[in-house]
From TrEMBL:
<keyword id="KW-0653">Protein transport</keyword>
<keyword id="KW-0813">Transport</keyword>
<dbReference type="InterPro" id="IPR003538">
    <property type="entry name" value="TonB"/>
</dbReference>
<dbReference type="GO" id="GO:0015891">
    <property type="term" value="P:siderophore transport"/>
</dbReference>
<dbReference type="InterPro" id="IPR006260">
    <property type="entry name" value="TonB/TolA_C"/>
</dbReference>
<keyword id="KW-0812">Transmembrane</keyword>
<dbReference type="Pfam" id="PF03544">
    <property type="entry name" value="TonB_C"/>
</dbReference>
<dbReference type="GO" id="GO:0055085">
    <property type="term" value="P:transmembrane transport"/>
</dbReference>
<dbReference type="GO" id="GO:0030288">
    <property type="term" value="C:outer membrane-bounded periplasmic space"/>
</dbReference>
<dbReference type="InterPro" id="IPR051045">
    <property type="entry name" value="TonB-dependent_transducer"/>
</dbReference>
<keyword id="KW-1003">Cell membrane</keyword>
<dbReference type="InterPro" id="IPR037682">
    <property type="entry name" value="TonB_C"/>
</dbReference>
<dbReference type="GO" id="GO:0098797">
    <property type="term" value="C:plasma membrane protein complex"/>
</dbReference>
<feature type="domain" description="TonB C-terminal">
    <location>
        <begin position="145"/>
        <end position="234"/>
    </location>
</feature>
<feature type="transmembrane region" description="Helical">
    <location>
        <begin position="16"/>
        <end position="34"/>
    </location>
</feature>
<keyword id="KW-1133">Transmembrane helix</keyword>
<comment type="similarity">
    <text>Belongs to the TonB family.</text>
</comment>
Length: 234
């Protein structure tokens, strides 16, 4: 015989209802817990300041500053009487500078004006008589001979500075100087990429010999001249 269960003893019969009721109860408890608010106990305090009626320190009273009265208005100017000038003024007589035919005209001798020799600079490219480099006295083209002798002088006296070689410095130094009226070299100016190269270019120009000065209209003049000196490492 198979045993028969009592339907009242089946625990799973109302399990769904119990689950819903339990879920509703838990949600209610959670809601109450979230909405629960607490307030601090309020105590009545006297927040009024305790100010004594009498002050120990005396408050000084502000003195009233008396401003001086405005100055009185200036007095009205006195009436100025106009007095006629009765003094006679002598008129200045301007004599005429024109000569009449009766006056003798004194002849003035011719005044000799001394010609002033002005020191002027005439560029090498336009001067009539170029400066003569020693050794070019008998040359037909003294200008070309001057340039050739100048290049030969630079080649013979050229010496590359050792410190510039070690540092790998090279470049071109532009040198400008003036051949004076006595044939000497002066007013030397130079500009280059390095002071050592400039010093070597200055040394070369200072070794130039004395020359025959250039002439313009037969008179010695100063002649500016410029030349580049190139320093190039091999």
């Amino acid at each position: 015989m198979e045993p028969k269960k009592n339907p009242k003893a089946d625990l799973r019969r109302n399990s769904g209802l119990y689950f819903v009721l339990g879920l509703a109860l838990v949600m209610a408890l959670v809601y109450v817990a979230l909405e629960w608010k607490t307030y601090d106990e309020v105590q009545d305090y006297d927040i009024s300041l305790n100010v004594e009626d009498q002050l120990d320190e005396e408050v000084p009273m502000t003195e009233q500053i008396k401003t001086p009265p405005p100055p009185p208005p200036p007095a009205a100017p006195e009436v100025i009487e106009v007095v006629e000038d009765e003094e006679e003024v002598e008129e200045t007589v301007i004599e005429s500078t024109e000569t009449s035919q009766e006056e003798e005209v004194i002849e003035v001798e011719d005044v000799e004006v001394d010609e002033v020799d002005e020191d002027i600079d005439v560029p090498f490219a336009v001067i009539e008589d170029v400066p003569i480099f020693p050794g070019c006295e008998g040359a037909k083209d003294k200008r070309a001979c001057f340039n050739e002798k100048m290049q030969d002088h630079i080649r013979r006296n050229f010496r590359y500075p050792e410190i510039a070689q070690e540092m790998g410095i090279q470049g071109r130094v532009n040198v400008m100087f003036t051949i004076q009226t006595d044939g000497s070299i002066g007013n030397i100016r130079y500009r280059g990429p390095d002071k050592n190269l400039e010093a070597e270019a200055l040394r070369i120009i200072e070794k130039l010999p004395k020359m025959t000065p250039g002439k313009q209209r037969g008179r010695p003049v100063r002649v500016p001249f410029s030349i580049p000196i190139t320093f190039k490492l091999q």
